[in-house]
Amino acid sequence: MNAGAQRRWRVPPGHVAVKCAAAAAVTALIVLYSHDPQFLFLAAAAAIGLNALALRDLVAPVRLAADGDGLTVVTGYAGHRRIRWDEISTIRVDERRRLLLHTRILEIETADDLYLLSAYDLGSDVHDVADELYRLRARTSR
Fold this sequence. Notes:
This protein is α+β, with helices and mostly antiparallel strands. Helices cover about 45% and strands about 35% of the residues. The strands form two sheets. The protein has a four-stranded antiparallel β-sheet with strand order 1-2-3-4, covered by helices on one side. A hairpin with a 3-residue loop joins strand 2 and strand 3. The two termini are about 15 Å apart.
């Protein structure tokens, strides 16, 4: 990758489709079971949550972008922040094992913020993304 190239990592389209389908299904259940107030409350809460997650994936599918000048990361619900390479203090992968779960999170640390991205956010293994970020940062810092 040359210094002028840009690389983007995004939520996989399949995950977005599943979230949209689940949101539509739960929303349809609200209409079908509107006579049951308890079910209606639970289904409405689930529908709001699923619709919010699906909408975020549609509005801001690219969670991380890198180029010769730095990174652009998603912040908040669907905002973006541009970070120059010299503002980044650490790029690392945090791995934890608890019970039967094994989690890997890409951490991008600046002086005032910490950005956490999972493989579900990036559509790639976090180790591969970290390696690519290390290489791009090394090429541009010369």
